[in-house]
Design brief:
single chain; alpha/beta; Aldehyde Dehydrogenase, Chain A, domain 2; seven-stranded mixed sheet; five-stranded parallel sheet; 12 helices
Amino acid sequence: MSSLHKEHLISAFKQLGEFMANPNEAFKTVVKSANHHNAWFTEEEVNKSLLALSNMLNEADLKQWFSTIEISKSPKKIGLILAGNIPLVGFHDVLCVLATGNIAQIKLSSSDDKLLPALLQQLVIYEPLLLPHIIYAERLKDFDAVIATGSNNTSRYFEYYFGKVPNIIRKNRNSIGILTGQESALEIEALGHDLFDYFGMGCRSVSKLYIPQGYDIRQFFEPLEKFQPIINHFKYNNNYDYNKSIYLVNLQPHFDNGFMLLKEEESFSSPLAVLYYETYTDLAHLAKKLNDKIDDIQCIVAKTDLNLKKAILGFGESQNPKLWDYADEVNTIYFLNNLAG
């Protein structure tokens, strides 16, 4: 297996980012095919993902990121079990494996099995030496380490089967938003992207909101009107109607703006088309409460500065991670750099 060089990889990843921002007609056909296969992967949502990844793969950030990377002289085979909840959600794991010179043995999600192979095919055009580093598998075998993304239920299965090798096993996480009542309409509108991009199905999607006691909910609902067309998606609409009917039949208090339901609950994980909320009276007390549950939180978006054990993102930023924004704060590059042998 020929040696990979950082400069060549940086160039190839940069070119792939440029391709994502301006894909050719052949790839646009793949995007249409993905939508026919998975109704959640509309062209609009796939293009959002492509643009976010394109922005991630800018030359300056790639150079900074690669300064933390050691290219393996004896490549390890890394089994990757990818999720499929949002378009290309497993791309970053694959990128990390390839950037460190290891071999990606990829178990694609049946929900997202078209976009990634097409992108990696393009990547190999820019750096042909990557071809033997990309393997697709229906079942992982002969691996040296595993990175698996799933739910709390599947994580137990993963731990049983892969616990004897070095691994990163990810469970459910959710993201939250915090309002103080001092937000502008434009800031709430930006928060709408954290709520509605990818139909709110990602771990970086805000599924729980904290609002001050006595907050006028119209301050929140009115700036979100531009996202109303989401209700025209039949699957999203079905979830909205189903949850609304449950709340109405059971006489459960909730707010309804015609395309999203807002319900008071302690849980972080809300159903599709529903946003859970809690009220608070004191930000310091809220910070302590959140710090006690910080391991269940993926992202926090807010305008205010809280003493939290996690960086706070601005409104609208949750779906635009940097190369070094590792899921669950587990540094994938550090994990791969430090595999024995």
